[in-house]
Amino acid sequence: MCILAVLWLMSICSPTQYIQKTWDRLERSPEKASGVYDPKIQPDQKPLIYISRKENKEELNKSLQNVHIQVLPETVDQIEHHGLLYLPYPYITPGGRFNEMYGWDSYFILLGLLEEGRVDMARHLVDNQLYQVKHYGHVLNSNRTYHLSRSHPPFLSQMVLKVYKNHPDRLKEAYPILRKYYEFWNTSPRHIPEFHMARYYDNNYGPAIEVLTSEIDHNGCNHFDRVEEMIREGKLSVPKEYYDQTLQEAYYLDDRAMRESGFDITCAFGPYGIETTKQLPVCLNSLLYVMEKDLQKIAKILNIKEDKKQWKLQAKRRKIMINRLLWSEEKGLYLSYNTQKKSHTQYPFLTTYYPLFAGVASPEQAACLVNRLPLFERQWGLTTSTVQTGCQWDSPYGWAPLHLITVEGLKRYGYRAEAKRISEKFCSLVEKEFKKYGHMFEKYDVIKGSADVHLDFGYESNEHGFGWTNGVYLYFKNRNQ
């Protein structure tokens, strides 16, 4: 470590001070274009910024003088060299290997920014996501060209309300854009009309490009190599549509859909993501219910009475279907529903608490979920699943965003003691490992109580920075005083 970095760390004596300094280190802006370089793809790739076909290239050339600008082609498969997608405002990156703005990460980062009174940057995050919907069709997994074909868990309506609730003019501008993003999730191929619910999907084909070059283990094998090896050795059995001497397109489709969920990698959507497109997930449909309720609120503020009625009806229908199809009375859990098998998945996953966050559950269902907390609660917080698979979104790992969702859900239903206990466990772990390493991390082992993680699938590192951990930690600390 260089002397300046050592001195910088020595000057920090608490996680809060670290976070205050780190926001600036994680900031990227279009003028400086410091996020143009992508450590996840091969270093010999030409650094490019792509702009929307709706933008004026000549005007942007005046402000973006230090980079090569290229107009996006009509289709993604026409892109020869992948690059950064232009956004008009500064934004916060997660940290570590990530040098771009991410979809659902930005919600949890926004919470932390608001806790510190950094309202302008919080608004930039919102305005950048609204820009993405207008110019790229939806909120992006990240603003890289290889992510144009997929989104991320939808939190944009929540973000809009948190910064623009008292600004009717801005809500009026945002409302049609939010409607457009809602339609992205509620049209084919993501929307399944038979169930009035949605699934994760990706509109591209083939292996995810960033995986080929960045999810490499110490033997030089990428994630797909490791999955193929398991199948060949008989450790993983999959239908022929997924593997026939080599991985098939059906496998890659599900893998990319899993990555849209934000949970890359997990076995919650089937072994290593297989079956993702066949599942109606608890998390996504809970968030779409939240979006419908948010759009109802905005329509009320804007006095659009007919829209307000329609959003109320849409939310009511989705709530009915979530409780009809995703609630397991036998397990006392919300579980994703496999549309092909016509049954629940048998994989307890921490997203079972999203319906509490959304307000979908009945008081009786909430009580059942509280009784099921021991499935996930460990000494240092909540583990993402009950099964150890070697994937980072399974046991024994705990993540800031799922702690926030669960804690806020428990509080919503009056379980404040449980919420406080869990948030304090997570904050204690963050503080313990910060004292040891001088960093905030992407994820933690909540059984061992450590930031020292060992993964078999996905990328092996535990990135530091880290945007959503910073945001959730600040949020919890300010509300547990």
List strands and helices in order, with pairings.
Layout: H1 3-10, H2 15-26, E1 27-28, E2 48-51, H3 57-63, E3 68-71, E4 84-85, E5 91-92, H4 105-115, H5 119-136, H6 156-164, H7 168-185, E6 191-192, E7 197-198, H8 209-214, H9 223-232, H10 249-260, E8 279-280, H11 282-301, H12 305-326, E9 327-328, E10 333-334, E11 337-338, E12 343-344, H13 354-358, H14 363-371, E13 377-378, E14 381-382, E15 397-398, H15 400-412, H16 416-437, E16 444-445, H17 467-479
Parallel strand pairs: 2-3, 2-4
Antiparallel strand pairs: 1-5, 6-7, 8-11, 9-10, 11-12, 13-14, 15-16
Helix pairs in contact: 4-5, 4-17, 5-6, 6-7, 6-11, 7-11, 11-12, 15-16, 15-17, 16-17
Summarize the structure in words:
The chain is mainly α and about 475 residues long. It has a domain at about 30-165 and about 175-185. It is about 45% helix and about 5% strand. It is built from 17 helices and 16 strands. A three-stranded parallel sheet has the order 3-2-4, with helices on one face. The protein has a three-stranded antiparallel sheet with strand order 8-11-12. α4 (about 105-115) runs antiparallel to α5 (about 120-135), α4 crosses α17 (about 465-480) and α15 (about 400-410) runs antiparallel to α16 (about 415-435). The radius of gyration is 22 Å and the shape is globular. The model has no long low-confidence stretch (mean pLDDT about 95).
